[in-house]
Hints:
This protein has two domains: about 25-100, Cytochrome c-like domain (Cytochrome Bc1 Complex, Chain D, domain 2, Orthogonal Bundle), CATH 1.10.760.10; about 110-185, Cytochrome c-like domain (Cytochrome Bc1 Complex, Chain D, domain 2). The chain is built from eleven helices and no strands.
Amino acid sequence: MFSLKHPLSACLVLAYSYAVPALAADAAAGAEKAAMCVGCHGPNGKSSNAQWPNLAAQQPAYLAAQLKAFKSGSRANPMMQSMAANLNDQDIDNVAAYFASQPAAKAGGDAALAKTGEGKAGMCLGCHGGQAQGNGQMPRLAGQHPGYLVTQLKNFKEGTRQSGQMQGMAGSLSEDDMKALAAYFGSL
């Protein structure tokens, strides 16, 4: 009789679970679904409007988590909630893989502010990666629109966007600090 109490059975179950391939994300299928994103996020995820973030080269785990949060309503944005509502989990993984595979965008930023922001960026790089490239669930900040980043930092500070760690970090920033950090990350 099969029992997980038996050590050999447990080992076989574990070995089998690691041997069964998970459905891999398909960037080409993601490109098809991502066509609906171009209006705001731009071709290949490079937005020309600071109101909407660049998605190019963003961390796939972060993109997938955000799409799922929009779909569930735990992250509020009526437009994104309606867009994500039409995606199943495989679609979400595929869209995330597509945008992650695109070359990074560079939004630019005020050079003087960027220099000031560079000195303050250390507080962000521990989570967001040494070059602000992102790290798994932590988003890429490099090349992001400075205006978008300032808006998000304000949202975290005000509590309209939830994340305990980010709310704490943003809460310690002045508006000038936010602008300097955003200019620095946009310049990368």
